[in-house]
Amino acid sequence: MQKCIHLIEQPNQEHATVEVTGSNEVLFDLCTKQCLEVWRNDIRRNPLESQGYNIYRSADPDIAKDQWSKVNDKPIPHGSGQRAQYRLKDLPDGAHYYVTAVNALGFESDPSEVVTARDTPKVVLKSVLLFKETTDEGKLVEAVTLPWFEIIEILKKDPEAAFQISDRIWEEIIAGAYHRAGFDDVTLTPRSGDFGRDVIAVKRGIGTVRVIDQVKAYKRDHLVNANDVRALVGVLHGDGASKGFLTTTSDFAPKLKVDPLVTPFIPSRLELINGESLLKRLVELGRK
Questions:
Q1: How far is the C-alpha of 150 from the C-alpha of 199, rounded, in Å?
Q2: Lowest mean per-residue pLDDT among 5-19, 167-181, 242-256, 259-273
Q3: Domains 2-116 and 129-287 share a fold
Q4: Which of helix, strand or coil describes residue 84?
Q5: What is the pLDDT of residues 104-129, one digit of tens each?
Q6: Nearest partner of 217 among 61, 62, 67, 64, judged by Cα
Q7: Model confidence over 16-69: pLDDT tens digits?
Q8: Dihedral class, residue 32 (left if φ above 0, else alpha if ψ from -120 to 50, else beta)
Q9: Alpha-carbon Rg of the chain, whole angstroms?
Q10: Which stretch, 8-12, 118-122, 181-185, has highest mean pLDDT?
Q11: Which homologous superfamily does the CATH classification assign to the domain defined by 2-116?
């Protein structure tokens, strides 16, 4: 089943190809000759014939397939003759792809092989922080590393790459942002048992200011809801921090900022940072 829809680097008459032109345009040339029967050996084979194809993209080819972003809004239909074509203009850098066939019921075949569009860089997902000692609350940040800046450069060119970065790397990126902003102690909390606090940052001066940040690395259409924010308010009280931030790669539910259980805390005790604001802050901190 997979061999009908796999992507290959060298074109032929039956299989998909990916090419990058000088204008940064990608042409997908998708197999239709064999894929009409892609469902024949599938237990979900009603109807037998595939309706078309879905193309998925990721800046990182190693993350789980269900975390890749679909680039077409509707299944790409079969074309005339042996092939169907689909063009993406102004494609951002860092492109890896796979294809699935989809039937009329919406079921998809197994993912194809992954192909990398030539001459495009890959998102660097190495650790973006250096750490000092470990405390009861987590690891103390000593410095940000070069990949922290590289990721910001990629996000500037391709904001959609934000949805390909893992939750943990996003927590590191946010912790690095607090370090770059001049906080004296920045702690990246453990993956589990963090009590709703992903990052803890402390600034000392005339007094001591302690802030906590909860990071929600969500897809674009996954909005942070009121329950998420109310839960952070509870964490804020329990921790005793001066202020809490909820940072997300997506956005917040439309009526959240008028929620009577949330608005009394904004902005003095609570601040909500959506994906657009997050990118702006990272770009500013990257220039320092």
A1: 21
A2: 5-19
A3: no
A4: strand
A5: 777 777 777 677 664 434 444 567 89
A6: 67
A7: 444 433 344 444 444 434 443 444 445 444 454 556 778 888 878 888 888 888
A8: alpha
A9: 23
A10: 181-185
A11: Immunoglobulins (2.60.40.10)
More confidently predicted of 109 and 273: 273
Residue 147 DSSP SS3: helix
- Which fold does the domain 129-287 belong to in CATH? Trna Endonuclease; Chain: A, domain 1 (3.40.1350)
- Of the candidates 118, 94, 102, which has an alpha carbon nearest to the alpha carbon of residue 30? 102
Who has greater pLDDT, 215 or 163?
A: 215
pTM confidence score? 0.59
DSSP state string for 189-243: --SSS-TT-SEEEEEESSSEEEEEEEEE---TT--B-HHHHHHHHHHHHHHT-SE
Cα pseudo-dihedral 283, 284, 286, 288, rounded to 10: 170
- The residues, ordered by sequence, that sit 6+ positions from 280 with a Cβ below 8 Å of its Cβ are none
The domain limits of the chain are 2-116, 129-287
Please say whether the dihedral angle defined by the alpha carbons of residues 13, 15, 20 and 23, taken in this order, is positive or negative. Answer: positive
Phi, psi of 201 (to 5 degrees): -130, 135
Contact 74/86 with Cβ under 8 angstroms? no
